[in-house]
Amino acid sequence: AYTTTHDTETIVGYLEILTAEQKRTLSEVSNVKYDPENKIFAKRIRDALINSPADMVIFPIQDWLLTTERINIPGTEREIGDPNWKYKLITPVENLPGI
Known about the structure:
Radius of gyration: 15 Å
Number of strands: 0
Order of helices and strands: HHHH
Strand content: under 5%
Shape: globular
Distance between the termini: 16 Å
Structural class: mainly alpha
């Protein structure tokens, strides 16, 4: 199971573009308690995946850190100064939050 990919919005970014009604629907179909605060709801989704019966769960680091920073935005490539694929982790690895 996974939250997002390098080509999609982060989970927090995705929640930001959904309406409250769409988020409530997501909550119902995923059996994850809804919260109007996107980071709280995203964390609950992340926790539900951790506790799911999936044999493997993959989180892009942005979803683990609950940020909206993107690795790649498809279709926006530029020959010079392309910002895609230049994501840098601002949190030292030693300070990454655990489960």
